[in-house]
Amino acid sequence: MKKRPIIALKPREGRKARAGAPWIFSNEVAMDAAAKALTPGQLVDVKGDDGQDFGTGYFNPKSLIAVRLLSRECGSAVDAAFFTQHLTRALKLRQTLYDKPFYRLVHAEGDGLPGLTIDRFGETLVLQITTAGMESLLTPLTMALETVLSPQSIVLRNDAPARSLEGLELYVRAEKGAMGRIAVEENGARYFADLGQGQKTGWYYDQRDNRAFIAGLAKGKSVLDAYSYTGGFGILAARAGASEVMCVDSSAPALTLVEESAAANKASIRAVKGDVFEELERLSAQKEVFDIVVADPPPFVKSKKDLEPGAKAYRKLARLGAAVTAKGGMLLLASCSHNIPADRFASECGAGILRTGRKASLIRAAGAGPDHPVHPMLPESAYLKSLVFALD
Ligand code: SAH
Question: Which of 17, 98, 107, 320 yields a CA-CA distance of 20 to 30 A from 26?
């Protein structure tokens, strides 16, 4: 094998990586002219200033996370066999967890494959690649997918804005087979997702367990699913016997899929297109309340600098959500912003609810389901927070 470039760490740097973390930051690297000249995504061997091997990774001189490690040994081959081994391990875990082939198959670092997520919808795989390093490994990756799963379709949803930071173009294409509308089976319900045009990969598997929890409370209850997207919470609640379900979202295509999923589940749902803040103000002015209110918004804290305004928006959402939650009802508030810490999110939610003068108890704090594993040394990458409050 051709000798790989070596990335050397500065003296005493790489403390977290030494303890097992898979990232090396740019300020930890001796960034000489040779390192700066490397192509983004290039495979490298990483060594400490004492000559210690940190392992094989891919390097991007322009990224804050300079190296994402793929193996703990220098000189490891990153080929179809490497991906086959990782995909097999990831698949085995999901097969232990679920009896149907609908799940997140690969969750980046949590599955040892930084820069890659794969959502599985039966015979269709939707890939999202966010780094130059993973993009340059697409060929061995797809070869391994053939070996491990031989799927009918492979869709590349490579349109995440984060790609621009890595100097990658944004595109969506079917690498194999077709893309478009597809059925999703989850918690015994049947939903529809649009893989080519929907948000992210077309479906949010991360809320699976939280949807099931809400559905478990929904029999005979009225439910408001705010920021419903394609109806993940609302459809399941309706199937579980909710007396009334209203889904609110600003996206017309998402609401069309809500209506089609409702029909497929013989569920009755009111799909309302609108802005959630405005809709909540309107409902509360009319003194309309629901036994269960779910608010699962898009990220309000997109980057660290948005923390204060984002936190304020979560507090306002909690206040407005509580205002339309019936006496003795439940309010689920979620955040998919990894830039707001869990305790800060919880305290903003609490403050917002208590502003309404209601008494409340936090009865459940959860995150993404187990098909979204977290690398043990990157606890901060657990982005989803999903809190359920019982209101007096
Ligand atoms: N709860 C959903 C996921 C929600 S994703 C599920 O279980 O799958 C966030 C949703 O918020 C998206 O569908 C987006 O269209 C919607 N959205 C974003 N801004 C909005 C706004 N101001 N008012 C209403 N919906 C909004």
Answer: 107
